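ok posting inputs for the guanosine-5'-diphosphate job
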Amino acid sequence: MSLTWSAKDHKNMSQAAATGHKRSRNDTGNKATVVLGAQWGDEGKGKVVDLLATEADLVCRCQGGNNAGHTVVVDGKEYDFHLLPSGIINTKSISLIGNGVVIHLPGLFEEGDKNDKKGLKGWEKRLIVSDRAHIVFDFHQVVDGIQETERQATEGKNIGTTKKGIGPAYSSKASRTGLRVCDLLGDFKDFSMRFRNLVHQHQSMYPSLEVDVEDQLKQLKEYAERLRPMVRDGVYYMYEALHGSPKKILVEGANAALLDIDFGTYPFVTSSNCTVGGACTGLGIPPLNIGDVYGVSKAYTTRVGIGAFPTEQLNAEGELLQTRGHEVGVTTGRKRRCGWLDLVIVRYAHMINGFSAIALTKLDILDVLDEIKVGVAYKLNGKRIPHFPANMDVLQKVEVEYETFPGWKTDTSAARKWNDLPAKAQNYIRFIENHIGVPIKWVGVGKSRECMIQMF
Ligand code: GDP
Ligand code: IMO
Ligand code: MG
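and the output
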């Protein structure tokens, strides 16, 4: 790839300038399809991305770090991806880690090597890493743990983070002391000086933090050399992908709308924008190059970590969803909290993301229930509210209005098309579709790639 502007670039730009040309949706180049979590994470984004990635040329992560855990099951083999885009499985596509992602280098290589042993060969040759991505250092992860302990001690509760250093690394980025991949690959003397300063800054905030700076720098130097062949100017790489020959570009969201730093259940959120804007800022994609935006939602709701969860079921039904759904965090191994599908949050996610369609996963988990409830509205002091409350104390107090559906009590795991589903399951799906006002394009009935009913 060349880092200089080509004649084609200059021609495009001067033509646009000469004609005072306003770009329309039809002449902006290739479009990126975006897959986003519409709940509190773990909706099955990995599976949806895998499905679309079989035809993609470029699969990108735009935000988050290895707090994400995306499962893909192909030919009976289960893969879990944390930093690598799930499209890395497709040997014909390129995977890109964008500038909005925070990268823990030991985590990245551990993940790659683990998957290499599972048979995922040549991943390093298919991976591109943006030079603008920020680095998560080991001490960021230690600080994540210290902050959680402090929250517990001072406020009586923590966030329940994944302790992958995500909050501290994005804090360093926002306070403009963070270090990026381009810094690591540049003058190592300068990088070392800035790394020492960053450690010092954290040690003055957290006196118990111990860092073997020399050992860290030695390791980082080694990682730098392993990483170097994969690093590109991410903005220019994306520009070429958008404006070169026709290409299928896929963006894999991590975390989810209700964990978004701006729109989520703050402060019980992650530290990046997991909604559609994150695809633009985390990859340098202009808004006009965003094509379809697919929201992923389970047929019920789960949440890992602390925070309000209006439809949570702390009873036998919640336990059944947890055990049947194998609801255990991919990254932390924690049990996921479970409850009924909350359409208020999915509609809220749609307000922000403007979904083109929804993938409804894990319908099969509901197969044994006599009755299924769906949260359709929130009430405060007996009155329906039209918005999703920003304040967590308010959210804790809402009363959920439910619709109740009869269970279909039939095994749906072998269903491969709409007509294979029992009428009561079809009714449940159509209700969800109508209530959100977005078509459901896929229905998941099992873990593997083929267990996805495509509706249109
Ligand atoms: P992600 O973080 O959104 O990619 O989701 P996770 O991988 O963390 O969690 C989703 C879990 O549900 C994984 O174990 C998937 O294999 C599994 N899964 C996804 N879709 C379905 C489905 O339709 N049915 C069943 N039974 N499991 C599914
Ligand atoms: P995927 O991509 C579920 C949650 C954590 C915690 C909060 C903050 O697999 O859907 P962090 O470590 O990011 O500072 O933790 O956010 N969380 C997730 N929960 N799935 C995820 O990602 C998550 N990423 C973060 O449990 O409550
Ligand atoms: Mg997950």
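notes: The CA atoms of residues 328 and 335 lie 4 Å apart. Residues 1-5, 16-21 have pLDDT under 50 and may be disordered.
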